[in-house]
Q: What sequence folds into this?
């Protein structure tokens, strides 16, 4: 068994639970999607901190510039940063995926107050911990993003890469975009941008990114068994954290009903 096969085998049960999570079947109304988005926005936000940690460690962002690391990995990181920070919006303009998500929330009528307060707190110099505690963030979202920010700030780089590669890139089941598409047709003009965001996310994070992400993990772990074990643990923890976030959103949906 290859080291990648070992990682995949370790995370397979949790990954399957996530792809089959009852959250997807549970959402059947616009109000349900609004509730989902109010928490999921924090996962869209904290993703960028994982990516920026990888960019800082695996490319050169200093002056004077010097070549750093593997050219394929540099290409991957810079390509993803470009796509995440300045992708194409439905109107043909440029927009960050996070800003696109905020636009989708406004269009859907989802409450973006908490995530905007958290952003304002960080912009004013506060810590992410303070922001998540004071902005009225749903408990499950605060716990999820708190863990992500901790990993992005203090985790070993191979752990960050593993969480990014195995815990973020391909965990949207086919049924979810189909669900959003149906609700978009039932509520014209309310979920069009959210549907576009999901489709764009799946398209951009497809095969090419996945293949080079694996290369990134391989280069960072090398022949070090300890690093491979830590990478597998980080990937497992990332998926388990997402499961807890999904559980928390299901509980919110139940309370709303």
A:
């Amino acid at each position: 068994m290859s080291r990648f096969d070992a990682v995949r085998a370790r995370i397979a049960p949790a990954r399957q639970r996530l792809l089959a999570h009852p959250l997807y079947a549970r959402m059947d109304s616009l109000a349900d999607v609004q509730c989902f988005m109010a928490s999921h926005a924090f996962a869209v936000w904290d993703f960028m901190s994982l990516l920026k940690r990888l960019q800082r460690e695996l490319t050169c962002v200093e002056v004077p510039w010097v070549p750093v690391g593997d050219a394929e990995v540099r290409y991957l990181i810079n390509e993803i940063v470009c796509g995440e920070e300045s992708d194409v919006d439905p109107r043909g303009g440029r927009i960050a995926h996070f800003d696109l998500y905020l636009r989708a929330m406004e269009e859907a009528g989802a409450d973006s107050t908490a995530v905007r307060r958290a952003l304002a707190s960080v912009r004013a110099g506060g810590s992410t911990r303070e922001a998540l505690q004071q902005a009225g963030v749903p408990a499950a979202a605060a716990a999820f993003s708190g863990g992500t920010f901790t990993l992005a700030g203090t985790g070993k780089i191979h752990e960050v890469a593993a969480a990014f590669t195995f815990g973020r890139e391909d965990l949207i089941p086919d049924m979810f975009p189909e669900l959003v598409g149906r609700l978009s047709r039932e509520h014209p003009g309310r979920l069009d941008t959210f549907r576009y965001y999901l489709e764009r996310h799946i398209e951009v994070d497809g095969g090419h990114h996945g293949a080079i992400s694996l290369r990134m993990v391989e280069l960072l772990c090398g022949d070090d068994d300890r690093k491979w074990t830590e990478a597998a643990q980080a990937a497992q923890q990332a998926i388990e954290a997402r499961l807890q976030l999904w559980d928390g959103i299901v509980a919110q949906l139940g309370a709303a009903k």
Observations:
- Strands lie at 87-88, 94-95.
- The mean pLDDT is 92.
- The CA atoms of residues 58 and 69 lie 6 Å apart.
- The two ends are 47 Å apart (CA to CA).
